[in-house]
Amino acid sequence: MSNRVAIIGVGMNKFGELWDQNLRDITLEAGMYAIFDSGVRGADIDGIVIGNMSAGRFTGQEHLGAQAADMGGLGDMPAYSVEAACASGGAAVRHAYMAIKSGEHKVMLVLGTEKMSDVNQTEAMNTISVAADWEWEGMFGATFPALYAFMARRHMMEYGTTEEQLAKPTVKNHANAAHNPWAQFQRPVPIGVVMNSGLLADPLRVLHSAPITDGAAGLVMCSEDLAKKYTDTPVYIEASEQNSDTLALHDRPSITRMDAVIKSTRSALQEAMLEITDIDVFELHDSFSIGEIILTEDVGIAKKGEGGKALDEGITEIGGKFPVNTSGGLKARGHPVGATGVAQIVELALQLRGDAEKRQVDGAEKALAVNIGGTGATSIVHILGR
Amino acid sequence: MVGIVGYGVYVPRYRIKTSDIAEVWGEDSARIGKGLGVFEKSVPGPDEDVATISVEAARNAVKRAQIDPTDIGAIYVGSESHPYAVKPTGTIVAEAIGCSHDMTCADYEFACKAGTAAIQTTMGLVKSKMIKIGLAIGSDTAQGRPGDALEYSAAAGGAAFLIGMKNIIATINETVSFTTDTPDFWRREGEDFPSHGARFTGEPAYFRHVGEGAKSLFKKTNTTVDDYDYFVFHMPNGKFPLAMGAELNVPPEKLEDSLVVRYIGNTYSGSAMIGLARILDIAKPESRIFMVAYGSGAGSDAFSITVEDAIEDRRGEVPTVDDYIERKTYVDYSIYAKYRRKIKD
């Protein structure tokens, strides 16, 4: 293929509660790291797309595209943000992919950003809750912990998933994040601590849940013909697929699977002409640990109902057959909602370049990211290859 | 040298268990105490306020110091719950303990460190020989909005320290402060309850300011953790001072004795000062104490203190911190709500 789309630069700021940085600081930092990593000049970039869910509510600032072009000193170019709830970052990547693939753009800067800690926790929760169906869910108190608790309880009932298995994605992802210098929580957490952490919505506990995070991630993407000019280690986007499902959880035939994820994974594998067994490393959207269990099944790593068993067998650990969330995932790398989808691609690009240091999956050649919005109403799947 | 001539504390007798508060709000009552490191908090009776608490503590301090109250040349009362917005608490204290009228007085506010700011002010007046003895008080009947995280810790109590040059029971070797404009916790005029920045009150507020204050004092005195026998940090809850100690490599056993917050809650302006008083109740002569008070908004006052021989002669005359901790009557949430005037017409 001659018109593939390449990722030639990646960058992030260290995720966390960044009290002394604002939205523009973190966005600029991630973007600059990505540009420096790529080796492109500012003048080479011909467009910016930003994944962001709700800067207006979190910080009072919108119009992030113009802001990024301005603060980055990049000058006059098309620049705008895209929103798809927690999948905003994935949507930004996909948008740039399509723009470059079409030939309209040559070199694009893709950013994902969210500054969540400037508002109090209630406001943060309310802001995130609008990614569910506000009229039918959010307004009645069905927060995301509550909705995912329904999914977890049902999964336990249908498939015998245990509380211990619910705790295992957290343990694995924290162990991975201990080797990720950009992660919010760079420390392991024992299973007993996870299982005894405070209840959010039975059976979900605090340590089953991704945190409130400030963070930004960036990519420089370009057409294949230009990629070699800048780097010897381009990573190619081999598939980009997106599907939608009902906004409200209760409108779905099953709440223990995400049909949009199943469809977009299948089409992505088909587009890339790969089988799931060809994929060496995964980033799966673990806003809650039950999410990782369900996605493990929906992408085909485990049979339906056996996501918990896959954790017991260790196949999703680094060194296992299908390593999942080597970055630490949303749980331990942190979950700045609009940045997450871009941060997933940053991690996978590092893995394919062999730059993931102590969390490197040896010889990784193909990688797959699932970025979802809400409880799975949006699914964006990317497959990368080197 | 300038130092502590006498000290006294007062803690209201009423207590509510944090597990009882948790039950009312549907929180996990079995976990809340351990989670916060606060198991009970003191509750002021219906006829107690910062004026009465300050007077009780001041009387204990004067009695311990065996001074003539007319030798007191200045009184500063630090609190964020002064009974009057305009009209000083300090004048009530001065009249109640028998001071002369030839003295200066003012009320202070700097969230939880107004009392230690008062100690610093009186130190200056004493060292400059403007006064013989100064009385610095930190006292609060702290407010917590029903259902808010603060409600588990906001407590009542106070400590009074007489600062002078003669017959001192502990020398204040040095004091430093660290101050920034950091809005982690505030209450606007006319509001019943304070607001806070939740997790923002931790790392960028308490830990930064207490940590910087501590480092600054170590540097100024050219000392290390090993030079001190006891550490006292402001206690907004039971976890923060322990985490601060761990960050500064303070062995937990050097901090343990000051952690009154577990039994009486956070007495705000009284918090670190009551912690210091508990150490003075038990420390042997020549012991060295390292204290850092913290006030939201934000700043820290750090003190290096050495206990003198005279302290042993001044014990036994007035109630200790433990006497007050052990003197308690439990109330349930409804009585607490009535006493704290949370039930309104």
Task: Please specify the SSE layout and strand pairing.
The complex is a heterodimer of chains A (386) and B (345).
Chain A: E1 5-12, H1 23-38, E2 47-51, H2 55-58, H3 64-71, E3 79-82, H4 88-101, E4 107-114, H5 121-129, H6 144-159, H7 163-177, H8 191-195, E5 199-201, E6 204-205, E7 215-223, H9 224-230, E8 235-244, H10 259-272, E9 281-284, H11 289-298, H12 307-313, H13 329-333, H14 337-353, E10 366-373, E11 378-385
Parallel strand pairs in A: 2-3, 2-4, 9-10
Antiparallel strand pairs in A: 1-7, 1-8, 4-7, 5-6, 8-11, 10-11
Helix pairs in contact in A: 4-14, 7-11, 7-12, 11-12
Chain B: E1 3-10, E2 14-17, H1 18-24, H2 29-36, E3 40-43, H3 50-65, E4 72-78, H4 90-97, E5 104-108, H5 114-127, E6 133-141, E7 156-164, E8 170-182, E9 185-186, E10 195-196, H6 202-221, E11 230-233, H7 239-247, H8 261-264, H9 271-282, E12 288-295, E13 297-307, H10 321-326, E14 329-330, H11 333-339
Parallel strand pairs in B: 2-14, 4-5, 4-6, 11-12
Antiparallel strand pairs in B: 1-7, 1-8, 2-3, 6-7, 8-13, 9-10, 12-13
Helix pairs in contact in B: 1-2, 3-4
Note down, in words, how this protein is organized.
The complex is a heterodimer of chains A (386) and B (345). Chain A folds into 2 domains: 5-120 and 213-235, Thiolase/Chalcone synthase (Peroxisomal Thiolase, Chain A, domain 1), CATH 3.40.47.10; 127-210 and 238-385, Thiolase/Chalcone synthase (Peroxisomal Thiolase, Chain A, domain 1). Chain A has 386 residues and is an alpha/beta fold. Chain A has 14 helices and 11 strands. Chain A has a 9-stranded mixed sheet with strand order 3-2-4-7-1-8-11-10-9, sandwiched between helices. The model of chain A has no long low-confidence stretch (mean pLDDT 97). By secondary structure, chain B is an alpha/beta fold. The longest helix of chain B has 20 residues, at 202-221. Chain B is globular and about 55 Å long. The model of chain B has no long low-confidence stretch (mean pLDDT 96). The A-B interface holds A 17, 19-20, 117, 120-121, 198-199 and B 28, 31, 35, 197-200, 203-204.
